[in-house]
Amino acid sequence: MSSTNHSVRDSSWISWFLGLHGNEFLCRVPPDYLEDKFNFTGLESLVVNFSHALDLLLDPEYDNQGWDNGVDTTDAEQLYGLIHARYILTPRGVEDMCLKYERGDFGSCPRVYCKGQKTLPVGLSDQFSQKHVKVYCPRCHDVFHPRTRFALLDGAMFGTSFPHMFFMQLPNLRPQPPQEKYVARLYGFQLHQKALMPSESPEREPRNSGSSLSKSTFGNLSSSMASCAPSLHPIKF
Ligand SMILES: [Zn+2]
Predict the structure, then answer these.
(1) Which of 133, 131, 127 has the alpha carbon at shortest distance from 119?
(2) How far is the CA of 142 from the centre of ligand 1 (A)?
(3) What's the CATH number where 45 sits?
(4) Ligand 1 mean position to 159 CA, how many Å?
């Protein structure tokens, strides 16, 4: 088993970063992976102060003066996020993330019929600063917003491929699709599919739009409010 988990505590920049509130989705990228320059190929051009960021990432004494030391860590956070996205696609990275998945660190699917299926983090883009992280449910194959405390993590820290690589490497963990599906009913009767679709006929402007009723009653309604009150439209003769 890998030792690359949150149980490692030291004064390094990585320990400080992983300990921040809201960063619990992230796993620890091991030192030997960070020290292999090959793993950073192509990232030099994506991070503005690459050398400084890498120095910070590898700094073992960063937190000795306390976290409030005034150092700008934005570039280091981006670099760590991008190398983290690469690491979790490796067998060791999948193993580390599997520990967190089985512990329920990434939360569960909100769909009733997914019955608390555990989720995995996913990005909707592989580029930094495009989208925040989402969670993917392997039962219904949909994506959702994570709990608020994790919602500000960048999606590129996980990338678009991670959950799919995860289940390719661990196919035994792939769950069955939901056995039940929600059925819309009205007074116990199942609704026809057409009844659930938006109306096909466009709404027409009332012919007597100049009347005092339409002006005073509907003239100032926002479109969203008006859409909630279709039965209140003036009667046409
Ligand atoms: Zn689901």
Answers:
(1) 133
(2) 6
(3) 2.20.25.20
(4) 20
